[in-house]
Amino acid sequence: MPHIGGANHSQLKKPMYQAIFQEFGLAKNEAIIYEILLIFGQNSVSFLAKQSKIHRRNIYDSLERLIEKGMVFEVISSKENLYEGVNPEKLREHIAEKSQMLEKVMPDLSKLFSHHKTQEQVYIYKGAQGAKNYMQDIIRTGEDVYCIGAKGGWLDERVKNFFPIFERHLKNSSITCWHLFDHEVREDLPEITKYIGENFKFLPKEFSTNCSVDIFGDRVNLLSNLNTGGFGEDFSFTVIVNAQMAEAFRTWFKLLYGLVK
Questions:
Q1: What kind and span of H or E run contains 175?
Q2: Domain 9-91, CATH
């Protein structure tokens, strides 16, 4: 059966939005099928199998789940039933519905979390999602941030979608950021200073490293594999939750800040 949409077959050689659809809850095969239906319009299982290289049996399974999720509907035909993707605005509805569901149970979930939370713990955040978790911790804690050996990692390309949210929270809160930057940030990344206020200094050249220490609330964050303006390919955050240790690091920060010209 010929495709009904007006796009040509070459458009599928480069998937455009499948990764985004997966972020919104579609499985890999579901994302592929939904994108095909958006590009080519209403079509048959035969056409979907040909374009996607997915086995027909798996096509039927994915279509059934897409129909359950409200992303595809079936058109009954005397020859071969056809399938059509719904308006992508449906994704907005899914987000709104899930957000409402989460808001209803969040107070109870927070109580469960707080009930079992220990006062002292150590864990590791890894990669871009770990960086976002680290920034969310700063927002949730709501206390001043003290950074030793800072390099402007907040501007890393891999967290650029979350950074405006983080920056807005900083501006709308009473959080003050205090930075002791590595010396090279002064020349290589001067734009970072417009995001953090006036409380910053630059460490002497001989004290640059590829790590940094951030302190806020009852947390000490040890960041590794840092570059000016971002993180290395494989980076992590060692998070120490210990109120006494955090207070000690804050004291040492203030000593260093006073000594640096």
A1: none
A2: 1.10.10.10
110: its two tokens: 């927070």
Indicate the pTM of the whole model. Answer: 0.57
Q: E strands, 57-141, where?
A: 72-75, 82-85, 121-126
- Break the chain into its structural domains and give their ranges: 9-91, 119-259
CB atoms within 10 A of CB 114: 8
Contact by Cβ (8 Å): 231, 203: no
Encode 158-167: b = buried (16+ Cβ within 10 Å), e = exposed: ebeebbeebe
The CATH class that applies to domain 119-259 reads: alpha beta
Question: In the prediction, which pLDDT does 172 show?
Answer: 83
Q: How far apart are CA 149 and CA 226, in angstroms?
A: 10
Find all residues with CB under 8 Å of 222, minimum gap 6, and list them. Answer: 211, 212, 213, 237, 238, 239, 240
Does 207 or 79 have the greater pLDDT score? 207
**Other Cβ atoms closer than 10 A to 258:** 8
Instruction: Please answer whether residues 108 and 208 qualify as being in contact, where contact means their C-beta atoms are separated by less than 8 angstroms.
Output: no
Does residue 43 carry a pLDDT above 60? yes
Q: What is the full DSSP assignment across 196-209?
A: H-S-EEE--GGG--
Nearest to 148 by CA among 92, 84, 213, 83: 213
How far apart, in Å, are the Cα atoms of 49 and each of 36, 61, 227? Answer: 10, 12, 45
Task: Find the mean pLDDT for residues 234-256.
Answer: 93
Q: How far is CA 109 from CA 102, 115, 121, 136, 213, in A?
A: 9, 10, 20, 17, 31
Contact between 228 and 185 (Cβ < 8 Å): yes
Of 66, 2, 57, the C-alpha closest to 32 is: 66
Hey, what amino acid is at 201?
K
